[in-house]
Amino acid sequence: MPGGYHKFVQATNVEHAAGDPLGYAFELPLELTVYPLGFPLIIRSNAAEVVEAARESWDWFSQQEQSPAMRLHVAVSVEPGFGLPAPPVFRAQRHLLAMVSDAANFAVCDLDRAFAFCRLAPEVAAAREWMRYHFLEAFPLVTLTHLCLTSIHAACVARGGRGVLLCGESGRGKSTLAYACARAGWTLVADDVAFLRRGRDDRELIGRPHPLRFPASTADLFPELRRWPVIRDVKGQTLIELPVGKLDGISTAARAEAHAVVFLRRPAPGAARLVEVDSAEVIPRLLREIPRYEDRVHGEHRDSLRSLGDLPARELHYRDAQDAVALLEPLIE
Fold first, then answer.
1. Which residue stretches of the chain have pLDDT < 50?
2. Do 303 and 251 reside in the same domain of the chain?
3. Is 331 helix (H, G, I), strand (E, B) or coil?
4. What is the pairing mode between strands 162-167 and 154-159?
5. Taking the C-alpha atoms of 73, 79, 80 and 81 in order, what is their torsion angle to the nearest 10 degrees?
6. Which residue range(s) make up the domain with 6?
């Protein structure tokens, strides 16, 4: 009923004037354009913390694509919430996506129009690493995966622009092996997810090498990682975050051409070894790790993966990352 509706919106929007109960006039005077994975994104907000966090996430990237800009509006409330909330839950139907932590921290996204509105409590905006990981970075990556990219649950390392995908479920050691490769002179392209441009046959992979994030256990092998901040992902796993350009001797790149696909099997008994994979198994294995989108988009993801089906494919059985690194070199020679 109309009277009940007006009482509801007034009770749940106490910081807005009576003439604007939904907050349409909430001012967002700050604006920044960044280029996640090379694609333009315009962010508007009322909080400097949001703008600075967006720079930390995406300033390393330059514009590589001429597509229409994505738009993200982030309104930070003047009233405190309930402390740092649980990581957001993602739910979608067709082109609409909701990301909800609690009543004070959520985002609503129109993936077809590449627009999202995000509402955050001030204490969440102040927790920049948490905000970046769960909200600022999630929207453009999900939107691009809906519109034009296929995400591959894999790390990626390269030599001379020739990339090797390191594929596997969480816990298989993708990030750790990629970092071990980078310390051995490889170029690090992606630590956990690589992206394939749909509608093209050049097998160009797009990665996100800054900032890098590793499971906290990686520091047991590489103690130099212990001094960096930690955050928790949506599954509650503790991650170490390495800011841009903070590791000497590590080469990074945002793009490489796929030349081999490696499925990780760890831990495995005996010496590290490579086992050939039937080409007919490559696409089904990659598809199992891709998040499900609506049927049309899921079909486009499946079709784009076919360009990888005739690449050399191996299973890498290993226990120690250092032993595994040497086995990868022949795959791109």
1. 1-14
2. yes
3. helix
4. antiparallel
5. -70
6. 2-147
